[in-house]
Amino acid sequence: MKIKTTLINICCLMLLLVAGLPVAQETASGDHVKVRWLAPDTFRQGMRETVGFYFEVDPGWHVYWRNAGDSGAAPRFDMEAQGALLGPIEWPFPTRLRVEHLTNLGYSGNVAYLFQLLPDKRTQEVTLHADLEWLVCKVDCIPGFATMSLVRPVAEQAAWPATDLALRNYFANRLPGGESESPWQPVSISARGSEHITLQLSGNRSDEIPSIFPINGDLYSASEPEVQREDETLLYKFKRLPGSEIIESSDFVITDSSRAWKVSAPLLSQVEIEKSATSIWLLLLSAFIAGILLNLMPCVFPVLSIKLFGLINGGNRPAERLRESFLYGAGIMVTFLALGLALLALRWGGLAVGWGFQLQSPVVVIGLIMLFWLMALSFSGFLEFGYRLMGLASSSSRGSFTTGVLAVFVAAPCTGPFMGAALGAAVVIPPLQALLIFLCLGLGLAAPFILMCASPVILRHLPAPGPWMEKLRQFLAFPLYATVIWLLWILGRLAGDSGWLAGLSLLLVVTLAIWLVKNFSKKGGAAGLICVAAILLISLSAIRMEGGEQPAEMAYDWHRYDKALLTEALDNGRPVFIDYTAAWCITCQVNKKLVLDTPSVQALFKKNNVLLIRADWTRYNPEITQALQDLGRNSVPVYAWYPAGEKKPELLPPLLQESLIAALFSKHLTVNSEDG
Hints:
With 676 residues, this protein is of the alpha+beta class. The termini are far apart. The N terminus and C terminus are likely disordered. Strands 1-2-4-10-7 form a five-stranded antiparallel beta sheet. Helix 5 runs antiparallel to helix 9 and helix 10 runs antiparallel to helix 11.
């Protein structure tokens, strides 16, 4: 009889296989994986129960979390139930799994994927049917498929096998709890350029640094984020996946390795907008004021001297002067807009650049050297074309627009008050608002000259043109010569000794070409142009071959920027002063010569055991660019002061005084005495 029954069962099984129907079973297996139900022998009527699928994985192999990370795929569960309601799959918190150069999120070893089940009140039996897909990996990955079923009676009490109940409880304790239960609360997320996103947490367990896992695998890299502690907050800097779109909020799983919590963090820009609808207007006002103050910076003086000459030489023609001032303003604003678009486009493309990035290119600096040299020669009266060039730049319609373009290019090295915060915000707020900041900077730079031309009182008091104008024109050539010297020095810092040689040789050949044109007509002009083109190509080749200046020895006790050195000093409670500077930043050089590198200030630093770091941004340096961005800045100068025992810096104003540096230490002493 038993043999007959067995034969019947085998026949039925074969018929099912021939018909192509899946064979329902309570267990499944594949390469390196065994899967079974984690469920009671009987369900309790009307009582919610946590059940699941238990994956037994061979040593060295792993399966995946809901966000699989850089490779792999999360398992899929397609479930149907009769006599019960089912909840979604719940995922125990994962670990990071390194596979060669990739980071995956998943489980190295056995794991249970759980879900909630609620039997119907009147049902006598619960039937589950599930189609499963999974991927098990070591270095290579193997897919697995199975169809599983479960039939269990419903009784007054649930009955669990002891081993399965212990497994269920273990993995249930690893499921993320609610945000309100978490000892760490999310504050915000903020985009740091196109490459990083920072999550800020606050919490009452300051002695612990929890692990964080992003649920969104389309935005965040799975690799371990950099962690920085600031007072009662933790900052996690995640790598951002290329081309990903920022969303209004992001979900994360936080774990202390024994428990976990799911939290949701809002985007910082949304928080700021909700808190204050006027924040963008304050930024635009700051940008406008910063543009006005740029007129007082030495960078802009050579170009303003050209406009001043044209204004005096133009006499009292208010309508014409006003028209030219508007064209000058248009040149400024169009150039600011173009530079802003270029800056945002480069950052969106993954290149970390900041304000003044054009002066980090030797080619651009050489072009400016040639331009200012020709302008200086024209003001000195050394070439006939110079008169037309000077007239073009000072009084004609095209010249007024061109002078506005020049004003923006030479203003790039200067960062005045209000400008740092405005430019820093421009790279993290929406692009349209960022472009408005650049336009307001341009409007502020152009406003004083436009108001001067619009004022009949000022125009009436302008002196009448006369022979003295020739002397004034020649005098105004000297600021242009000074600008050439300054640009040559920048070229030397960018390209080393070959930069100086290339720049001076180019000026020599340009002057020779002008002489040939003046004395030998067309043939001389052709020869001059050939000489200029040849020396230009040789100069650029020499600069590329040398590849830049070797780092010079640091004066006094300054150290080159080194993130590891900074971290070590902060961990040891040592005070740190960082000078973010560049050779093409005039404000930086003035602060260096008049304040930072004076014996008295250096003595103050030495007396208080301050670690001095000079972050030289003359040439493109992504590490320094990122450090500036983390401070909310993308221009120099920036002065970051870390008092002893503090890891959050205080940003000093861009214009330094010795009394300001001395006050840093007197304030610190006052705080210490009060604590005592």
